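Weekly structure sync, notes
Attendees: PL (lead), two postdocs, one rotation student
Agenda item 3: pending single-chain targets
PL asked that the sequence for the first pending target be pasted directly into the notes so everyone works from the same version. It is reproduced below exactly as submitted, 227 residues in total.
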Amino acid sequence: MLLTILLAQSVGAQIVAAPADISPEARIAIAPVAAAIAKVRQAQAVLPPPKDDAEKLLRMVELEQAPRMAFNQIDPSKIPAADRNNALTAIWQQINSIDEANQQALLAMLPPEGWFMIDKYGKEASRAAFLIVQHANPELWRRFAPVLEPLAAKGEVAGGDFALMYDRLALSEGRKQRYGSQIKCEGGKWVPLPLEDPEGVDRRRATLGMAPQSEYLAGSANRPPCG
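Predicted structure, written out during the meeting:
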C-alpha cells in the first residue's frame, strides 16, 4: 500500500520530481495522491489565517490525511512491478515532507500544559495533534506517552489515542503492548501482537473508555482480507 505522490505542484510547496525512469503507467496510477495534496493546499491557500491553534491543527491534519486517504483508493497492481520502488520513494518523500513540517509546527505550538487538552482545544483538535505525533517516530512517542497518560485518565485526551501511542512505543522498544491496539494476521484471523497480562487487557481498556478486546477484533472484519 501507499503508492502515490509525485509531480505534486502544491501551492507554496516544493515539487517532488518523479524519478526519470518511471513509466507513464506508473505516473497515471499514482497521480491521485499528488492531486489530493494539491487540492487541499489550494483550498487552504484562499482561507483566512487560522483563528487559533485548534484551527491550525485541523488544517495540518487535513493535509496529512489527504494523501493517505487517496492512496487507499489506489490499486497497487496498476503500477508496473519495475516501477514500484521508485513510486514508493516518490510517495514517501512527499508524505514525509508534510509529516515533518507538521511535527515541527506542532512542537512550536505546544502549550505550557504539554499537550492540546480537550477542554481547551476541543476533541477534534486534540485528535489532530495525536495523529500528527502518531506519524512521527519513537522519539516523539517516548516524549509524549507519559504526558498523555494522566490526561487520558482525566478525559483530557481520548483514551484510545494514548493506548495506541503507548502500544506502538512498547513494541518499537521490544516490549509487549498493554492495551491490545496493535494486531496482526495469523491463520486467516486478526489477533493482537504480544500482550502483557492478556487476562487483564479488557480491564485496562475499560479504564480508558475502550471497548473490550473481542469487540475491537470483531471490528477488524472491516479491514482488508486477512490471509
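Discussion points:
- The radius of gyration is 19 Å.
- Strands lie at 183-186, 189-192.
Action: rotation student to compare against the earlier draft before next sync.
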